[in-house]
Fold these 4 entries.
Entry 1:
Amino acid sequence: MVINTKGEKKVIEIPIISIRPCKNQARVYFKRDEMQELAISIRENGILQPLTVRRVSKNEYELIAGERRLRAASMCGMKSVPCIVVNCDEGQATVFSLLENLQRENLNIFEEAEGIRKLIITCGLTQMEAARKLGKRQSTVANKLRLLRLTREERDYITRSDLSERHARALIKIDDETTRKLALSEVISSGLNVKQTEKLVEKMLSDVPVKKAKQTTKIIYKDIRIFVNTISKAIDTMKSSGINASSEKNETDDYIEYFVRIPKTAIPQTTAETDVSEVKEGEIIPIQQNA
């Protein structure tokens, strides 16, 4: 995606009251102490990097990049901020804002995962395509998206307790929400590190009968191979019928993911031909289809 900035690279001062936040902002949490430090720095040194905005009306702009700077400037009493106005539509602005935030390292783990999810939905991307845009491996993107299996409440506790992504990924192994919350409570109250958390999760999972589950897993695995072969045969059948179908297969430790694209082009319909001039009432007519 390219945003046209030709002729609009000039930095201009825009009143803070005229700038509205981006509705698809990836960042949700703003640590108060960090914002205060940034506000002090801006008060002393000014804003060193201009904000990026787009014009939405004569006197109104939408923020694309720089929400922390905008908030900190407001905290220290500034009435206007330096901005670069870019020429783009709402869709381009959304993608640019998401990419700009995702390429920064100070998003928390859930903000990053939510941002990746929004990017995939907004742009209609596969995980592989999103990974290429972000310069990440597809397995990395898949693992980050898995974090969204945790409830909003669990995410809040993890974020406020400064637990790491590895803590969260260990807890995801517990499917039962009640058991998972008990594990999370123990991790936070006891200040467990990642290894201790993983041992706790293993212990809690071992309390569940696994003999029958292992047998079921073997059966499911055999069925999965059948399903995968069925998908491949279906794609081959469509191709042999003249339909330009395509598929993309991604595989992680937890699942196999297929993306199938079938063009919405018209498929020639078969026509039935028969001589009805001598058909008697009640007689069954054999139908011949054109090849």
Note: Confidence is low (pLDDT under 50) at residues 1-8, 210-222, 268-291.
Entry 2:
Amino acid sequence: MAVQTLTPFRFDNSYARALQPGFYAPARPATVPAPRLLFLNRELADELGVDAEALGGEAGAAVFAGNALPEGAEPIAQAYAGHQFGGFSPQLGDGRALLLGEVIDTHGRRRDIALKGSGRTAFSRGGDGKAAVGPMLREVLIGEAMHALGIPTTRALAVAATGEPVRREALLPGAVLTRVAASHLRVGTFQFFAARGQIDQLRQLADYAIARHDPDLVGTPDRFLGLLRRVAQRQAALVAQWLNVGFIHGVMNTDNMTVSGETIDYGPCAFIEAYDPEAVFSSIDHGGRYAYGNQPLIARWNIARLAEALLPLIAASEDEADVARAVEQATEVIDAFPAWHAAALLRGQRAKLGLPVDARPDEDEADAALVADWLALLQAQKVDFTLAWRRLADAAEGQDVWLQPLFADPAALDAWLARWHARTGAHGGTGADRAARMRQVNPAVIPRNHQVEAALAAATDDDLAPFERLLAALKRPFDGTADQADYMAPAPADVTAGYQTFCGT
């Protein structure tokens, strides 16, 4: 059993305090034979008000591997359900994760501190509850890349090797991730209680979520409808940000959609290279349900499932008229989702094009058409998504020479560029100023899939140097400096064509 040795976190555990067992199952992390720290996020530790120096040695490795339970921790496995690839599982829960507790960070924000890969829980359903080095370091790379790109995300505080193997497709070295999140409340958390008809518990959960994420709604008559609306708006904006950097989550089950609006669970995720709305890299997504271009549709579908779960709370009573009114109100939110998403997407695309993000409403249709035609060009000519946007910034300065070689048919590009120059020129300013703004939103460096796999393969063989170099580049996505050149080049087309990602479970 884990023992208490360190007090690095000032825990204030509202979830365990406000809610009772049934919302969670108490648990303890498994003891491992040889804890060793592979990664410590010192920047994040400072943000959390944690002494990184105290956690950098053997004592820290013991904490992050689960061998030492910090003072004030109340480890629990949270209960939740979820639709997985469209099929409903009434009980999932943290099968290989534990919420150690919560801290208030240096900005006054409440943050969860959780272990992933720390062993079996009451929700493990036959799994071993463990994790391997590669998937846990993938969470570091993608999470830190998303953070640097300005996209709401859970983050890795640490990864510790366990010194024991885990069996997946082969025997792999084990590891535990320490994940930080605004919360781990999911759409599936609400589904868990709704599916059981436990309305009192559902109300407790919703009131807790509102107090934590939308405190201005506390006590208001329509707070549950308000919660649905806020979650929908956050997810509409989040998925727009994903699309604008070419990110595919890969497993958008309802248990992987947070109410906080943070990206969670970097399992079978990937970034597109040649632009293709139908791109799928997840080995388990056989039907393309979670393809790149389907993500807004799936997000709306997930919001509809949240609406169903919240319906007993949105309705003023069980009276037929009240229920009908609640259905109408929830449907209005679901139907508003595409417009919220489209507005967030276009706002981001305007910035990427060098246009004012707050353009007049009468310009929406023309700007949306300009973007659509640009993306159609990229798709038709199989152009790398990230490079095309980045080199469009060069074209803003008149340097078309860097953009044109990406296109097999430069004539089609030239016709589009003429429209774009006319549109951007109408707003004045110099091409240099426009290019500078565009380079602040169009990354030069993303987690290229082949680079990620190479770094993780080396780390699995106990060579962390490639991982550390890639991580350093990902933390500066907009620089585009010479030392990042190796990380800006796309993979050969044949490598991307056969690329698959895996869950790691």
Note: Residues 354-505 form one domain.
Entry 3:
Amino acid sequence: MGRQGYSAAERLERLPISGYHRIIFIIIALAFFFDSMDLAMMTFLLGSIKTEFGLSTAQAGLLASSSFFGMVVGASLSGMLADRFGRKPVFQWSIVLWGLASYLCSTAQTVDTLTLFRILLGIGMGMEFPIAQSMLSELIPAKRRGRYIALMDGFWPLGFVAAGVLSYFLLPVIGWRDIFLVLAIPAVFVLAIRFFIPESPRWLEQAGRHEAADKVLLGIEQKVRDSLGRADLPEPIALPRIESAPGTFFSAFQQLWSAQYRQRTMMIWSVWFFALLGFYGLTSWLSALLQQSGFAVTQSVYYTVIISLGGIPGFLMAAWLVERWGRKPVCVVTLLGGGVMAFLYGQSAVFGGNVGLLITSGLLMQFFLFGMWAVLYTYTPELYPTSARATGSGFASAIGRVGSLLGPLVTGLVFPITGQGGVFALGALCFAVAALVVWLFGMETKGKTLEELTQA
């Protein structure tokens, strides 16, 4: 317990949103952006890699899935590590790992070594995603938490679009290996994180490190005062007190399956699995499917980038609606909307026909699906207590990555049998199942502090 007996949550929740909060947000969001670029780049490079190595569609699907295999491992481990040893060190090392792995991808001379390096890249990215959402959810007050986490996720489609733009201009000039080399450069970003991102005071407090928590909180409070240009801060308001103590490495995982959190865990795992199975089964193949239909490499990349632009207004709309409608209804609407548009995209995917219909349905599909991402990243960490938040987020992400792993592989197997219409119909069905799960079993978390949700 800190100054005058106030908890970390009570001191954090009373803080007005300031420039300091925005700096933390930008640093975490930029790390998210660079990770997104690395992961999305396979969407734009897969066709060229497939051609160079003479891969079948099934082999290309396996390569596209390799990063997701690594993400399953990374997300599973990082949550437990962060709940046991802290958010900040795990966040830092995840960025170093994906930067190194991206460099190694640029050196790959065979598809086997490239697959191995993409697995390592996936481990680093899988570690970073759940830690980023946990850190931000614990540092931003409840009244703005949903909006900021949803906006953080918005850097995902921005990274996707940036990857497309980068590949569009550079792929014809330097080839896919040098593009991976370029993507390794942002790993130096970890130096900024070391100086500007604090450890979560909520985590320090529940770990029993009260003096360290108080020191971090004093620093945060002073930076908020400096940012606002005033000496006084609002008085803390009493919140539910959550008694906890440092646990073992596996105690956080056990907590996910306690009577209080079991239904939440089963619900969110199901949603992540089906949503990501559908999403990556479609988006990992957007560019390659266009090439399969007769478009040139640069033309297919161009259309994929145009379609991805729909994700930008999608996440902005979701960031606004999660604080107006709530997490649950926005999640259902974005999943159903994405499913309907994915189905229509598949039916319009006789690409030599109506390109206008293809682009329109594709834009709307990405509008809803990137809105879905924004809600998922907002919703998931709110379902768990500080002692298990990163583990809960990490394992939900890991289960989702199993869906991500299967998605491109299933697409590579199904496409020769059903064609593009069947692939996108399957994706639409996955989104419908995820929406039904949220509707039946999800809880609303809008406007509540993390401590209030812990006792819900």
Note: The chain has one domain: 9-227+249-454.
Entry 4:
Amino acid sequence: MDRMDYRILTELQQDGRLSLTELAERVGLSTSPCHRRVRALEKAGVITGYRAQIDASQLGYEFAAIVFVTMREGDHQAVTRFEQAVADIPHVLSAQRLFGDPDYMLHVVTPDLPAFQKLYDERLSAMPGVHRLTSTLVMKTLMPERGLPLPS
């Protein structure tokens, strides 16, 4: 990857809906070379997809929590079963496996506290291999997910 690839990535992280013509103009390339570079970045797996950023509260998701999960066992089967179960819960927006204790951190959204309690009691605590769940409520989102820092 060179400086031009990073410029392309920077622009796409800021606005993934740019047309190839607009993107090429912003980075100082003609359309064809810009298109080739974007396709190469996609093929190499650097660009993994495009999506809209949506305001959760506009869709009624007013409640957010971070849920820390400690597993009973850490063997391959237990981890695989748990990770498959997490992937099946649409209210879990992101999940990270951690070193140490706890084992996982989940970012969860629901419409309100009663909906979170129901999700917690019926789905999260029932996932395979869970020993303990600890939750902390999100008071305010200071910074929504943003793009990666890239060399300029």
Note: Residues 56-137 form a domain with the Alpha-Beta Plaits fold (CATH 3.30.70.920).
